[in-house]
């Protein structure tokens, strides 16, 4: 029997997932986002990051890890993502990039408005920024006379249950920016947004210091995982 030469060898088969990728892209083009289930949308996203691997298993793992919630997935920290098998720097970096796009989009929506009259836009923005932080973060939204957002700044970062807040620095920064009012915001990594006694006392200190200099404190928001609390609505300020 004649030996098969190199030229007679059967060509290697293309990976099975390549045709699948083409079909997904075609379905998306023809039917839009509703044409694909969540895991296939995530597959499409992962294609560009992991070009030489079947991304379906990882897409399903990611959705299972975050109970099918895209918002939780996109808000997860790099450290949290890299604990998941199959997630390396490239995937974690791209998810962080999408999170940044979403946060800036939400911020731009708030800034473009003449006023912060949309409560839901404010809560959405703060939630995207802070709900999945593993440590406490204290930030201040500085507003002008028409309640237009002048600046959003992180004033302090802390541990899982405490952030040092310096009343003088908050008020000083408001004067530097020419702010007429501020909104205080911080997160509770535990997920429970119930105000603590120190939250209430700190808020009252800032209100009093700001009042003396003509700066109003509109509210103090506490952001949890899936809920938020407003000290103003709770009658605590």
Q: Note poorly predicted spans.
A: none
Beta percentage is 5-15%
- Provide the succession of SSEs: HHHHHHHEEHEHEE
Mean pLDDT: 84
Sheet of most strands: 5 strands, mixed
In total, the number of domains comes to 2
Assembly state? single chain
Record the strand order, biggest sheet: 2-1-3-4-5
**Rg, Å, rounded:** 24 Å
User: Which geometry do the CA atoms define?
Assistant: elongated
Instruction: Give the beta-strand count.
Output: 5
Helix content: 40-55%
> Structural class of the secondary elements?
alpha+beta
> What would CATH call the architecture of the largest domain?
3-Layer(aba) Sandwich
CATH superfamily of the largest domain: Cytidine Deaminase, domain 2
List keywords for this structure.
alpha+beta; 237 residues; 2 domains; Cytidine Deaminase, domain 2; 5-stranded mixed beta sheet; DNA polymerase, domain 1
Describe this structure as you would to a colleague.
With 237 residues, this protein is an alpha+beta fold. The chain folds into two domains: 16-101, DNA polymerase, domain 1 (Orthogonal Bundle), CATH 1.10.150; 116-230, Cytidine Deaminase, domain 2. 46% of the residues lie in helices and 14% in strands. The protein has nine helices and five strands; from the N terminus they run H-H-H-H-H-H-H-E-E-H-E-H-E-E. The chain has helices at 16-31, 38-47, 56-65, 70-75, 78-81, 89-112, 119-130, 167-177, 197-212; strands at 137-143, 149-157, 181-187, 216-223, 228-230. A five-stranded mixed β-sheet has the order 2-1-3-4-5, sandwiched between helices. Helix 9 links the parallel strand 3 (181-187) and strand 4. The radius of gyration is 24 Å and the shape is elongated. The model has no long low-confidence stretch (mean pLDDT 84).
